[in-house]
Amino acid sequence: MSKAGPVQLWLREGAVVTHDGREYVIVALADINLVMAKELESGEKVFLKIGGLEPPKRIREGADPETVERDLSSVSEEDWRLADERRRHIEPLLNTTYLHSAALAEQAAAMAGVSRATIYRWITAFKSTGLLSSLLQNPGGKGGKRKARLLPEVETIISDSIENCYDTEQQRSIAETIVEIRRRCSNANLPLPAINTIRTRLNHTAGRERIARRKGEAAAHDRFDPIKGSIPDADWPLAMVQIDHTELPVVIVDDIYRKSIKRVWITLAIDVYSRVCLGMHLSLDAPSAMSAGMCISHAILPKEKWLTRLNVTSVDWPCWGTMGVLHMDNAREFRGDMLKVACKEYDIDLHLRPVKKPRFGGHIERMMGTVSTGLTGLKGATFSGPAEKGEYDSEGHACMTFGELERWLILFFAKYHQKRHDGIGMSPLAKWREGLLGTKDKPGRGLPARRLDEERLRINFMPFFERTVQNYGVLIDDVHYYHDVLRPWINTPHPEFKKHKRKFRFHRDPRDISALYFFDEIGKRHFAIPYRDTSLPPVSIWELREAHRSADERGIPHENEKAVFALINEQRKIEEEAAEKTKSARRAQQRRVQHEKARKQRADDLPTVSNSAPSMPAPGVRGYDPEAVVPLEDD
Predict the structure, then answer these.
(1) Collapsing DSSP states into helix, strand and coil, what is residue 244?
(2) What are 69-88's pLDDT values in tens digits?
């Protein structure tokens, strides 16, 4: 297995960090963006900006415990269940400061049926990554502790007994259920499952559905969906984050002609405890899973690089970290598989609020209202409706470009974070600081870990497709992709159903579909998979769809990639000629400008194609493999 570098940087007293090539030990957390540290070599004490801290050199070079990236698409539900079960066992110990943590470890070990040393190994693995996958079984492991060894017949009896004996209105006790399961196994001449095994199965499924079955829907609603003056369980920073989209009430202009191109969409994430804006994503494209994923990854990651890239260095945005609960509405872009899979990996509890019940998302709604109100003073504001707008010509007065509006919003949030919030009685940043560093009366939760695996994070929160790898490569939306890294996986059979082919997960940025991101189990990392025909230009999914519609009108088959992409070039030329005259053409052109900026930034944030011209091109005809051709014998 190949080693990866550390994926998190913990900022705690006593932690060793590197700054400008020198090693320091953190003496105290001076502020949410500042630490007091002592240089190890000279003993000098200094204040260091958190944004400039890195892991110690010896850890960056791989002296830390092995961290192996895995292909999450191949992880079974049973393995995920076991990993989550392990996390539940160690959860009381993850942030404990008690002197008697050994007693808690013994208790967790007894519940899990493992040794105390194993509990400590799980804690170390989870703390070093923050990923649920760090608690997965060793891939390919044979036997060993915690390896499922129950016979299928025993598994069936356990599942049936839990459903029809324990999860009923009769509310039988755990002890009664254990006796019943072991009795049924004995009657069937099957080995008796361990008591702890049965108990952990019951603990694992102790959720809303169980409460509803045993005590009724009303009791489940009261426990899991209570309606109170404030949202429960948001008692510290990052405990709960709400996210939503809105179309900003201001018209912007394009970069070239500086003429109006209508409004833009923003996706915002708010920390419910402190009311700080944890992340944002601005786009000319309608809300999608991609914009939701971009906002979430922006919320989790530190902001220093982003601010420097946008040339906004006069303000700090010292807010980052993985949230415990992610709260959002029932919009289609929030209900896809991508968010479910990514949130499971980063141990984020995904909550979708009830349909047509906006009170469940009041904090994010109020923040978006605050932003909209702040925009009313800008030229090009559309206000809340015709009555408020009057005869004001929003498009005629519009003057801000996309980039200028993005920088204005950063400064707006910097001011918002410092201003007193009536709902919490102090500024959001002061509340954030109080929750992290604590007060005289209440200890803080500590600074959240800074994620160092930015590439993996961004890919995981990107929409994906599951496809088999054929001789010709991969086909998505009638576009072929290929790279030599796919060769070992061509026609790979399904591990369980040999008559079927195995499907692999390919992530794709809809703003630029010229590359897919594929996790190679051999290289243990993600690779960029380009078009099979590398002469085709980078395009967005929206341009491709429009080209497909135009191709249908002209009778051009979608499989003719050259002809379809020629239509895209034709569309772009028409837009460029019409841009000065029509608003829709300017907006389309500006969308391409923003997609191009994202494409250039992608070279720094994501894997790039290591070999744009494959050493051995994939066959041009599906099902045809030139390597399989055998010459005829003369005789």
Answers:
(1) strand
(2) 666 666 777 777 888 888 88
Q: Is the pLDDT of residue 226 over 90?
A: no
pLDDT of residue 49: 92
**Beta partners for 451?**
8
Residues 481, 516 contacting (CB under 8 angstroms): yes
Q: How confident is the model at residue 3 (pLDDT cuts 50, 70, 90)?
A: very low
CA–CA distance from 291 to each of 9, 281, 408, 516, 541 (Å)? 26, 7, 20, 17, 14
Q: Which of 375, 338, 333 is nearest to 247 (CA)?
A: 375
Residue in 521, 520, 515 with CA at minimum distance from that of residue 537: 515
Arithmetic mean of pLDDT, 341-367? 77
Measured between alpha carbons, how far is 320 from 237 in angstroms, rounded to an integer?
10
Rounded CA separation 89/72 (Å) = 22
Q: Are strands 525-530 and 512-520 parallel, antiparallel or unpaired?
A: antiparallel
Torsion angle (degrees, nearest 10) of CA 532, 535, 539, 542 = -60
Does 343 have pLDDT greater than 60?
Answer: yes
Predicted pLDDT at 53: 92
Top-ranked range on mean pLDDT: pick from 182-196, 411-425, 580-594 = 411-425
Q: How many whole angstroms separate alpha carbon 385 and alpha carbon 403?
A: 26
DSSP code of 42? Answer: T
Q: Are 65 and 1 in contact (CB under 8 A)?
A: no
Q: At which residue do the structure tokens 């399961």 appear? A: 181
Burial class (CB in 10 A: 0-12, 13-18, 19+), 431: buried
What is the SS3 assignment for 518-568? EEECCCCEEEEEEECCCCCCCCCHHHHHHHHHHHHHHCCCCCCHHHHHHHH
- From the list 582, 334, 323, 290, the residue with the least C-alpha distance to 463 is 290
Paired tokens of 546: 């429009």
DSSP 421: B
The distance between the two most distant Cα atoms of the chain, rounded to a whole number of Å, is 94
Amino acid at 386: P
The rounded distance, in Å, linking the Cα atoms of 471 and 489 is 10
pLDDT, averaged across the chain: 82
Q: For residues 356 and 608, give the distance between their C-alpha atoms in angstroms, rounded to a whole number.
A: 43
Q: Are 72 and 341 in contact (CB under 8 A)?
A: yes
Check if the beta carbon of residue 630 is closer than 8 Å to that of residue 479.
no
Say how far apart CA 174 and CA 197 lie, in whole Å: 12
**Torsion sign over Cα 237, 238, 242, 245:** positive
Tokens 């808690």 label which residue?
Answer: 104
Compute the Cα dihedral for 466, 280, 452, 514 and give only its sign: positive
Q: Which two tokens stand for residue 358?
A: 């906006």
- Residue 410 backbone phi and psi in degrees, to 5: -60, -45
Would you state the structure tokens that stand for residue 436, as one six-digit string?
Answer: 């992290």
Element (DSSP H or E) covering residue 351: strand 349-352
Is the separation of the CB atoms in 3 and 68 below 8 Å? yes
